[in-house]
Amino acid sequence: MSESKQINFTIVPDETSEATRTYANFCAVNHTPFDFTLTFCEMAPLSEKDIRAAESDHVVRAPIKSRVVLPVQVVPTLIAALQEQMRIYTESAGNADRGPIH
Question: Against a cut of 0.70, is the pTM above it?
Fold first, then answer.
């Protein structure tokens, strides 16, 4: 029998890849028993016409920019990373007392 060997490593983004940066200012979150789906949209300011149209059915459609599906096991690490980055941001920006932005 061969012995199993443990190797520790760090995963980092490959900055040489062709991935494009996508802007989104709205994120809808859904889940199944197996995964979480984050749907990122770009919501532009509403025009008077958009507001009038939304008054009847109370729905505003936002163009989807990206949809990311994550296994449930990844979500706690994502939440922790976002909280840490928000902590660093608020400390450096002097916004520690403003609270969450919705």
Answer: yes
